[in-house]
Amino acid sequence: MNVIKNAKIYFLIFAILSAFTQSKAEIKIAFVEMDTLINESLVGKSMIQQLDKLNKENVKKFSDKRKKLSSEKDKIQSQKNILSKEEFEKKVINLNSEFEKVQKDANSKGNDLRTKKNNAMKKIMEELNEVLSEYSKKNNLAFIIDQNNIVIGRTDLNITKDIIKLLDQKIQKIKLN
Predict the structure, then answer these.
(1) How far is the C-alpha of 79 from the C-alpha of 142, rounded, in Å?
(2) What is the pLDDT averaged over residues 17-45?
(3) Domain of 48?
(4) Rounded percentage of the chain residues whose pLDDT exceeds 70
């Protein structure tokens, strides 16, 4: 009976002490705007500019090819009554084959562009994780949360500008492979 009473007293003392120590513990939290980090950091801007340039080149290239093939299609259509049926069908089949090649090439270039973006983002995120980790240790932060996962928060907890400065010091450009 005495053992149970002593155990209850020890448990009560332990509970009170842990409640006091937990209420005194301060959990520091901050948040970042990941989209802003990518769009406003030097490395993010570098990646976006390179991707835009490659995309514009691809769009122009395939637009020109499609116009050429469309012009060829119109030419073949105008010769429909002049050419023999077999020769006309042969030209149509060749033209369709060319359209398919252009479409496959466009899809391939689009996939290459996505792969380049994914690889660049992976490298940026690796560097960003290092920066966030160092910042967290230096400022004794328990959590750094993406703003997209926060409904409302104090603006003084937003460390995006600080992280952009640190990221810009660490890496300015990225080369798309």
Answers:
(1) 74
(2) 78
(3) 2-170
(4) 85
Does residue 177 sit within a domain?
no
Cα distances (angstroms) measured from residue 150 to each of 23, 50, 131, 146, 160: 24, 31, 21, 7, 14
pTM, rounded to two decimals: 0.73
Residue 22 has pLDDT above 90, yes or no: no
Decide which of 161 and 152 is more confident: 161
As a whole number of angstroms, the distance between CA 93 and CA 16 comes to: 85
- Cβ proximity of 169 and 137 under 8 Å: no
**Contact (CB, 8 A) for 33 and 162:** no
CA dihedral (140, 143, 145, 151) in degrees, to 10, reads -110
Domain count, the chain: 1
Q: Report the half-sphere exposure of 145 (CA within 13 A, side-chain side).
A: 14
pLDDT in tens, 34-54: 999 999 999 999 999 999 999
